[in-house]
Amino acid sequence: MNKTVSEAIAYRRSCRVYTNEDIETSKVKECLKNAVLAPTSSNLQLWEFYHITNKEVIKNIAHASFNQNAAKTAQQLVIVVARKDLWKKRSKANITFINKVFDKPNMEERLVKRKKVALNYYQKIIPVTYFDILGILGILKYVVFQIIGLFRPIYRQARLSDMRIVAHKSAALAAQNFMISMSEIGYDTCPMEGCDTLRVKHIVGIPKTAEINMIISCGKRDDKGIYGERFRVPFGDVYHVID
């Protein structure tokens, strides 16, 4: 029986050692389909997923990941990639979708306005936010936005580094969707940041303009694969309620 969401979250642990038991590629792929349902900034979906099932490639990636047990014993790997560089392409995809959805005769005035606002967002706001040249425009936009922010609320994260963070946050949300989905069907994962990203890109053929968000190892947990009880700081230390 599949787990509930709460059960899947509780079951999920970072597994460092997997058994030799195979996992089904098709099931991992279905979990990746859940990954792309994650929320994403401006619906730009600036992510890609490289699903590695080839044992020799896994071995090479494990070497580039400092031979971590979680990588060496993995049955499969998923590389989550942030693609900030694809903002133009993904923005155009949203525009195409909007034009298709609102392509109706005699639309209500509220829908006409909604279409106009949505198109304006992707045709004007997104280019202003994402377009940059060597980070120079980002700095200028940042300064201008801070000045405007003295008089009214404004989006302040306009630098190249800020937009990279936005893309990585969305990619991480998708990665969490994936790991919880894997947990739900009894498969285990371990998100790994420790790797030589340049070597991993070369091994897999990931574009230079892309950025690796994390590598997720996949398999079924070995008894010694979970390193002790889960530790979390007290909830009261991180929870703040504003009445």
Q: What is the C-level CATH assignment of the largest domain?
A: Alpha Beta
What is the CA-atom radius of gyration, in angstroms? Answer: 21 Å
Write down the domain tally: 2
What is the CATH H-level superfamily of the largest domain? NADH Oxidase
| Terminal residue distance | 40 Å
Tell me how many strands there are: 4
Largest sheet: 4 strands, antiparallel
The portion of residues forming beta strands comes to 5-15%
Mean pLDDT: 96
User: Which runs of at least 5 residues are low in confidence (pLDDT < 50)?
Assistant: none
Q: Biggest sheet, strands in spatial order?
A: 1-2-4-3
CATH topology of the largest domain: NADH Oxidase
- Count of DSSP helices? 10
Query: Class by helix and strand content?
Result: alpha+beta
What is the global morphology?
Answer: globular
In short:
The protein has 10 helices and 4 strands. It has 243 residues and is of the alpha+beta class.
Describe this structure in words.
The chain has 243 residues and is of the alpha+beta class. The chain has 2 domains: 5-86 and 162-227, NADH Oxidase (3-Layer(aba) Sandwich), CATH 3.40.109.10; 87-158, no CATH class. 49% of the residues lie in helices and 11% in strands. It has helices at 5-11, 25-35, 55-64, 69-72, 87-101, 109-130, 136-148, 160-184, 197-204, 235-238, and strands spanning 47-52, 76-82, 188-192, 211-219. It has a 4-stranded antiparallel sheet, sandwiched between helices. The longest helix has 25 residues, at 160-184. It is globular, with a radius of gyration of 21 Å. The mean pLDDT is 96.
